[in-house]
Amino acid sequence: MSFFVSIYILFSFSNLEAMIQSKPKGNTVFALTAFFVLLIGGIIYTNHNASENGASWFHIVSLVISVVVAVVVLVMLMFRIKLVSVDRGKMKVNYPLRFRKSEMDMKEQLFAWQEDQIETNGMTFKEMTILFKGGDIVKLSNQEDSGYGKIHNYLTKKFKKQRQYPKPKDKV
Questions:
Q1: Quick one: pLDDT band at residue 168, thresholds 50, 70, 90?
Q2: Cβ of 140: how many Cβ atoms within 10 Å?
Q3: Would you call 113 exposed, middle or buried from its count of C-beta atoms within 10 A (0-12, 13-18, 19+)?
Q4: What strand order describes the sheet that includes 123-132?
Q5: Domains of the chain by residue range
Q6: CB 112, CB 163: distance < 8 Å
Q7: Residue 99 falls in which region: left (phi positive, over 0), alpha (psi -120 to 50) or beta
Q8: pLDDT at 83 exceeding the cut of 80
Q9: Which of the four, 111, 126, 127, 172, has the lowest number of CB atoms within 10 Å?
Q10: Closest-CA residue to 100 (of 142, 136, 143, 144)
Q11: 10 Å Cβ neighbour count for 9?
Q12: What is the DSSP letter of 137?
């Protein structure tokens, strides 16, 4: 299934060259998919081992934990994948695994946008939150999404008035 999702993501915007496009980076999708496949393999192995040797408390606990983690990773994979395109004041957001598409006119519906910087272990990650008047929220990060810089530059250039700056953090 993830192979087909990757193919869909790669070719979904092939005919839209003038737009600014953002889609999940390949390494993000690959890492989540590989982790999910390893979890499923571990679940199958533990289930097979428990059925042959008799289920002990260790088998049951590891199966429950593995299934919960696998479901969480699958839900993350399904609901985090989004394809964003921006052109001529309109933002199109496509969630291929949710079968949901939305198109917003940024000149009329953009309420606010904000960029947060998160520092961890000497690296800085940037996350942008775009809020629309209808209640739609689009979140992009430079670590997970391609085209982050182009969308940030576009919003800075065209919609500077709607930008909100994060509140300074209190130093303790």
A1: low
A2: 22
A3: buried
A4: 110-120, 123-132, 137-141
A5: 2-24+81-158, 27-78
A6: yes
A7: left
A8: yes
A9: 172
A10: 136
A11: 18
A12: E
5: confidence class by pLDDT, cuts 50, 70, 90: low
- Of the candidates 170, 151, 148, the one whose C-alpha atom is nearest the C-alpha of residue 25 is 148
Q: Tens digits of per-residue pLDDT, 71-80?
A: 888 887 777 7
**Amino acid (1-letter code) at residue 60:** I
CATH code reported for the domain at 2-24+81-158: 2.30.29
User: Identity (one letter) of the amino acid at 95?
Assistant: Y
Could you say which DSSP state residue 168 is in? P
* Structure tokens, 153: 């530059």
Q: Output the CA angle 69-5-12, nearest 5 degrees.
A: 140
Average pLDDT value over all residues in the chain: 82
Bridge partners (DSSP) listed for residue 104 = 91
Q: Do residues 153 and 142 touch, judged by C-beta distance below 8 A?
A: no
Residues 6+ apart with CB under 8 A from 165: 114
- Give residue-wise pLDDT tens across range 33-42: 888 888 888 8
pLDDT at position 17 is: 47
